[in-house]
């Protein structure tokens, strides 16, 4: 509904909403500290440990905006809300909307390696856990909002790790994130600072080492 309202308000003001407009706005996004070098740094940390790291975004925001952002080149998948565009690149109707409940299906798409959002047969098909390209036990889900809570719980309950990040200077943000830890919805709650050696960086690297160690132990037992 909010996506449709955006188009209605723009039409009332005689403003044309284009795909390129979202991409241009994405280039100007104000990113959290450390985000720009986070992706290559974490990927390299994985390579040094002998395993591959892939980065995915599941967002209620606009896909074209994320595609226009400086981090898009590091992302293997971008699952986000999108519009239908005509041959002039003008948005005329919402095509896909993600909310707090629908976000979880994209975790299964990543888990099973189903790339196309319209492919419902494959995402619902049974795939033996050992054949899934991204096991839930290997996932680290990082989120910063209430729409992430179902994903937090799903990943954590299926053996992965969930991290709530918060803006330290926003009133009540830390308390809300700490509450998620107490309720068992996330493993950690840390400031939204992606800089090297900060709590988020340290938490993710420790989890990566744990995942690698668990995999090694499992291989020894086979």
Helix content: 40-55%
In N-to-C order, the SSE pattern is HHHEHEEHHEHEHEH
Q: How many beta-strand runs?
A: 6
Strand content: 15-25%
**Structural class of the secondary structure composition?**
alpha/beta
How far apart are the termini? Answer: 51 Å
Query: Which geometry do the CA atoms define?
Result: globular
What profile does the largest beta sheet have?
A: 3 strands, mixed
Question: How would you describe this structure to a colleague?
Answer:
Helix content is 43%, strand content 16%. It is α/β, with parallel strands linked by helices and 222 residues long. A three-stranded mixed sheet has the order 1-2-3. Strands 4-5-6 form a three-stranded parallel sheet, sandwiched between helices. The protein starts with a helix and ends with a helix.
Features:
222 residues, alpha/beta, 3-stranded mixed β-sheet, 3-stranded parallel β-sheet, 43% helix, globular
In short:
With 222 residues, this protein is of the alpha/beta class. 43% of the residues lie in helices and 16% in strands.
Structural topology:
Blueprint (H helix, E strand, L loop, with lengths): L1 H11 L6 H9 L7 H14 L7 E7 H5 L9 E9 L5 E6 L6 H10 L7 H5 L15 E4 L5 H9 L3 E6 L6 H10 L5 E4 L7 H23 L1
Parallel strand pairs: 1-2, 4-5, 5-6
Antiparallel strand pairs: 2-3
